[in-house]
Structure formats: structure tokens, C-alpha cells
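pinging the channel bc i need a second pair of eyes. not urgent but kinda urgent?? the chain im working w is below, pasted from the shared doc
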Amino acid sequence: MTRTQKQILVCILTREGLFGIKELSSSIYKKNGTVQQYVTKLTKDGFLLKKSNPKDSRKILISLTEKGKGLATDLYINE
């Protein structure tokens, strides 16, 4: 797992909420396109869940799955 993937998981864990790509990108100081690639990979691996934003269907919201919460918690405690 890359450092950026770890940052994404821990960021979502510590802020306890749904994130859009733009908010997540600015929180970890990475470009939107970069974060989108990592989010796609983490979603395929079962760590993140993506769903449509009810306020704007063109955007997605990202949250942790139970598997993602477990890993993010371990990463947060051990760093």
C-alpha cells in the first residue's frame, strides 16, 4: 500500500464523514486526478465505498467500508 493510499484512509477515518474527491484532494494536498486513481483502486480492493451525491448526481461521495475502517484504524494507531 502506498503512502497516498494510507493518507486517504486515515484522512477519511479521522474526519468521520463522506468526502468528495475535491475535499479529499485538498485535505491531503494532492491533485484531484491523482486522488481519483487511488480511490478507484481502494474501492476495487474493498476499502472504500463510492456513492452518488444526492445534492449533485455528477459527483460522488466516498466513505470507508468496515474493512477500510479496520485498516485505517491500524494505520492511525501504528503511525
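so The chain has four helices and two strands. and The mean pLDDT is 90. — does that match what u expected or am i reading it wrong
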